[in-house]
Design a protein that fits this description.
Keywords: Membrane, Transmembrane, Transmembrane helix. The chain is mainly alpha-helical and about 180 residues long. It folds into two domains: about 15-120; about 130-165. It contains six helices and two strands; from the N terminus they run H-H-H-H-E-H-H-E. The chain has helices at about 15-35, 45-55, 70-90, 95-120, 130-150, 155-175, and strands spanning about 120-125, 180. A two-stranded parallel ribbon has the order 1-2. The protein is elongated and about 65 Å long.
Length: about 180
């Protein structure tokens, strides 16, 4: 069991968004040197996807209520949270399962919730995908059988639903809009 060292990256003078972006990229490069690229305990692919959309892309996320100041403040706060996460990773060279879970719930989950709301990210893993697929198949089968017994026509609603689900996941993967535990 490793000891958990939490570092808050709050300075007296706030960083500008450009400085924060630069800091995030530097910390991420340092994290790759310390932990390696494929370390699932640090949620490397999730972090990489967050950075790709928060730091590298200049596109505006979809806002539901068109409140750009609120969205901008949220984006800056999430960048600060991402930076805090990377600083914490760099202070803890030995990450075990317990620390990984705590970091996921403290950092990755809030970032992922924000990214889901504004950038269209999807949570993968943790049995969520299997549960959603099971629910889709169950509902689709109920619809198929109901239509069959009412009209005696075979409907392929289940197959269509599963294909749509799989295609959406593939598109999210290609757009790098997924995050998850140990991802």
């Amino acid at each position: 069991m490793g000891t958990i060292v939490k570092v808050s990256f709050v300075k007296k003078n706030k960083l500008t968004e450009k400085e924060l972006n630069k800091n995030i990229l530097e910390e991420f490069n340092h994290t790759k040197e310390i932990h390696g690229r494929n370390n699932k305990l640090i949620h490397h692919k999730s972090i990489s996807n967050f950075i790709d959309h928060l730091v590298h892309k200049t596109e505006n996320p979809s806002t539901k209520n068109n409140k750009s100041n609120r969205e901008e403040l949220g984006r800056i706060r999430k960048k600060e949270l991402l930076n805090d996460y990377l600083v914490n990773l760099n202070k803890n060279p030995k990450i075990d399962e317990e620390i990984s879970k705590e970091y996921f719930h403290d950092f990755i989950q809030p970032l992922g919730n924000y990214m889901s709301s504004y950038y269209g990210f999807t949570l993968v893993g943790n049995g969520v995908t299997k549960l959603i697929l099971l629910i889709i198949i169950t509902i689709s089968l109920v619809i198929d059988y109901s239509i069959y017994f009412l009209t005696e026509k075979i409907i392929y609603f289940t197959i269509l639903s599963v294909v749509i689900f799989i295609v959406r996941r593939i598109l999210k993967f290609k757009q790098r809009k997924i995050f998850g535990y140990r991802y």
